[in-house]
Design goal:
This protein is 30% helix and 20% strand. By secondary structure, the chain is of the alpha+beta class. It has a domain of 101 residues: 2-Layer Sandwich (Alpha-Beta Plaits). The strands form two sheets. Strands 1, 2, 3, 4, 5, 6, 7, 12 and 13 form a nine-stranded mixed beta sheet that branches. A four-stranded antiparallel beta sheet has the order 9-8-10-11. Strand 12 and strand 13 form a beta hairpin. It is globular.
Length: 398
């Protein structure tokens, strides 16, 4: 049976036959370890000389965004990450200075540390990070996890983190922005409640559903709700939902729209699988990425991987998945051209393509630990979802 939260984010199928081992992940931070993998070329470009400092950021109990914000606040050092990492994990990732500045060799704080490992002549980009290595402990299992052997049959769904985890709302905000309903976007951001969230957060959000409470509640909004604080503060000043949304960082506004695109992608994968489409092997007429990550038409070459449209204003209709995508867009009452937002053009998205399945390498299962490497953009929680088949992903640590 598919958990309710899976359906809420567009996932309505399992693709492996394994019964599921149950259990829980992330019982402790150090039960979930993640480290980034840089391309060989990027590693070779890191040297003792260069204009931009490269650091290894190690952290736990804090996400990437907040850790880098803290670095800037305390040390006036602005750094850019190649990927985002959760708070509930022990993570290692690469970050790079954005300006030619005198760098700091080492920083150590309670929840994170930074160590300079060298310099590059031009800043590292997301393309330099080719994957992530995971080491994950599953506690309280009911089945032997070593029996799972279907790592090549997992669809490349966007994971729970993309949608807000305990409060799956980011895609709903994105749809409201797409429809230029800024009042709804503000209300969703501030007052959308979820059965998976804490009673304290739920109570605060219910009170925030009445904008007459904004002034008296502003100081009660906790540190981790920094986006809510920005919006409430702006609403107190202007009572203008559009201005309040614009007060959010551009990257966050884009993220909301991308979360809605991710929801549509998940729905497409689910529907196509149910309809019997082969999502693991490309065929004539398909769009594919080759072994070098270059997109093109199917040519029966080794290493090509099937890709599916990620809907935006430049949506490509000529694939075998247009039937499913058109049905989903119709039910959602949106169209590709809507992804060009005239009133907020800076968050418009042309869309693109995404691999249909997960490429999982270096797999090792020892006792209750599972290790594997995923390419950039794929979610370990989606792999673990197929291994564990959790009845309640949130209580299972997802």
């Amino acid at each position: 049976m598919i958990p309710k939260i899976d359906s809420e984010i567009g996932i309505s199928v399992y693709t492996t036959s394994f019964e599921g081992c149950g259990g829980k992940i992330k019982s402790k931070d150090d039960d979930f370890l993640v480290s980034e993998v840089l391309s060989k070329n990027a590693i070779q470009n890191i040297s003792a000389d260069g204009d931009y400092a490269v650091y290894k950021l190690k952290k736990h109990g804090i996400d990437t965004t907040h850790s880098l914000a803290n670095v800037f606040k305390k040390y006036s050092l602005r750094l850019k990450s190649l990927g985002l990492k959760d708070a509930t994990a022990v993570t290692e990732q690469y970050v790079c200075s954005e300006k030619k500045l005198n760098s700091i060799a080492k920083i150590s704080e309670d929840k994170y540390s930074l160590e300079r490992i060298g310099f590059v002549k031009k800043p590292l980009s997301k393309k330099d990070m080719i994957g992530n290595q995971f080491k994950i402990k599953i506690t309280d299992t009911t089945k032997d996890i070593s029996k799972f052997n279907e790592f090549d049959k997992i669809l490349n769904f966007y994971g729970y983190q993309r949608f807000g985890s305990k409060r799956p709302v980011t895609h709903l905000i994105g749809k409201a922005l797409l429809q230029q309903d800024y009042t709804k976007a503000v209300n969703l951001l501030l007052s959308f409640t979820s059965e998976y969230d804490s009673p304290e957060n739920t109570k605060l959000r219910k009170n925030l559903s009445d904008k007459s409470n904004y002034s008296k509640l502003l100081d009660e909004i906790p540190f981790q709700m920094d986006l809510e604080r920005i919006v409430v503060n702006q609403m107190i000043q202007d009572d203008d939902p559009k201005k309040a949304i614009r007060a959010l960082p551009l990257a966050i506004r884009r993220f909301y729209l991308q979360a809605y695109q991710s929801f549509l992608f998940n729905k497409t994968l689910s529907m196509a699988f149910i309809d019997g489409e082969d999502l693991f092997l490309p065929q004539q007429g398909d769009v594919c990425y080759d072994k070098n990550g270059i997109i093109g038409k199917f040519s029966n070459e080794s290493g090509q991987r099937l890709s599916i449209p990620f809907v935006g204003y430049s949506y490509y209709k000529k694939t075998r998945f247009h039937y499913q995508i058109s049905k989903i867009l119709e039910s959602e009452e949106v169209s590709p051209k809507d992804f060009f937002l005239k009133e907020m053009q800076e968050i418009s998205s042309e869309g693109g393509f995404r691999n249909s399945s997960i490429k999982c390498d270096d797999i090792d299962i020892t006792n209750d630990w599972i290790r594997f490497t995923l390419s950039r953009g794929s979610y370990a929680t989606i792999v673990m979802r197929e291994v564990m088949k959790p009845k309640d992903p949130i209580t299972a640590g997802f």
